Amino acid sequence: MTDALECDRELDTRGLNCPLPILRTKKALNELITGQVLKVVSTDPGATKDFQAFSRQTGNALVGSSEADGEFVFYLKKK
User: Fold this and answer.
1) Which of 8, 12, 16, 22 would you call most buried, defined as having the most Cβ atoms within 10 angstroms of its Cβ?
2) Cβ(8)–Cβ(34) under 8 Å?
3) Three-state SS letters, 22-58
4) In 10 A of CB 47, how many CB atoms?
């Protein structure tokens, strides 16, 4: 279901471990305008908890996520 979400930009963080996916996500979100959606692809097993916490702490909404074959996909909407 979340695969159908539209995004304005995609960020590939596969192969990177914490904290790099979050740091790169923060930088990418800074380049977007309010309301735009960033899709992040990660292979970090801790990414689900990391992105949930990042969303709560920054106010950028986690509008979707999924996991398949060891890859995690997150959709964040810039506040």
Assistant:
1) 22
2) no
3) HHHHHHHHHCCCCCCEEEEEECCCCHHHHHHHHHHHH
4) 26
Residue tagged active-site, from 5, 16, 18, 62: 18
Please indicate whether residue 18 is annotated as part of the active site: yes
**AA identity, residue 34:** T
Provide the CATH number for the domain around residue 65.
Answer: 3.30.110.40
19-76 per-position pLDDT tens digit? 999 999 999 999 999 999 999 999 999 999 999 999 999 999 999 999 999 999 999 9
The pLDDT value recorded for residue 1 is 42
State how many domains the chain has.
Answer: 1
Domain range enclosing 36: 2-77
Q: Which two tokens stand for residue 2?
A: 């979340």
